Amino acid sequence: MLTRRAVILGLGGTTGAVAFMLGLGWWRSRPEAQPSAGVLPVPFGEMAFTLTDHRGNQVRPTDWLGQPTMVFFGFTWCPDVCPTTLSDISIWLEDLGADADRLNAVMISVDPERDTPDVLADYLSNFDPRIVGLTGSLAEVQRAASGFRARFEKVPQDADYTMDHTAGVFLFRADGHFGGIIDYHEDRRFAVPKIRRVLD
Amino acid sequence: MKPIILSAFLALTAVPAIACETVTAGDLTIDHAWSRATIGASRPAVFYVEITNAGAADDALLGIATTAAGMPMLHQTQVTDGVASMPHALSVPVPAGQTTALAPGSYHGMLMRLTNPLKEGDSFPASLTFQNAGEVTINVEVLSMRAEGPTCSHAGQ
Ligand SMILES: [Cu+2]
């Protein structure tokens, strides 16, 4: 908790968020995809990717315009960070009550190799049913991450692999503009008011 | 990263009270051992636990063994510039006079090559090896995939 508290305090304000995003402006796996302008996630209207949700529907970022949206990057082979984030999001949605129905809650898989729409559907059935899982080709996932200034990287583990990935939850206002980040496993006393700010 | 100090956050989610086992080894008291259910056996599972060191000497958790997994390891989730990774941890410090938690987002046991899928309500034994206190075995409760920690029926928290 000490470390986490330090992170939360360090990123409390806009300055902290900007400093945080500066750290995300670097893309190891695909440097040519790194956008030149700005370090914050671009608005949905300027993102360009097409992914498939866990029910088989095609989703583009412009589909989210008109509703506040929260997005995080994860994968279903992830035992620690991702179930914790999905559990946190499920709790936040319950805390928000009926207001949460106006919110898009999205997980983008950084492991499209293993996370097919069916695999995502099976996994997400354990969490709040309003959470939508997205997957697609690696190229489209990279385009999505690029727009969010998020990073992910495949890392060998045992005979298999795991994924390092940006762990915060991105918040966007209904007009599609970036509205803040909830840090990994942030206390709900901070997280829920941050979400309410993009809901208003 | 410093060892996580015991706090109330493990009790945030209301889950059915279960009779969590408490075991002792020398100055160490070990309890709240839990894991999350898995889909199938090909995905890795986690192991979380709390270790209270009431002694005057520091100890360290060096390793974990269990029949539930062919390749259990100690990991430490780290978030650097917003990016989460979970490198192998050679040991977990268990300082004197403190409670150290293997907990979501921090140190955890990474249970790779599961023998069987972990189902909510199941339990399995895990043996922990400490530098000073030696080996101790505890029963691990499998909670739901969205659990954030156990609610034990004893007065441990
Ligand atoms: Cu791990």
Automatic annotation (TrEMBL), chain B:
Pfam families in UniProt: PCuAC
Origin superkingdom: Bacteria
Protein name listed in UniProt: Copper chaperone PCu(A)C
Organism in which the protein naturally occurs: Paracoccus maritimus
Residues making up the signal peptide according to the UniProt record: 1-19
Lineage per the UniProt record: Bacteria, Pseudomonadati, Pseudomonadota, Alphaproteobacteria, Rhodobacterales
Keywords: Signal
Gene3D superfamilies in the record: PCu(A)C copper chaperone
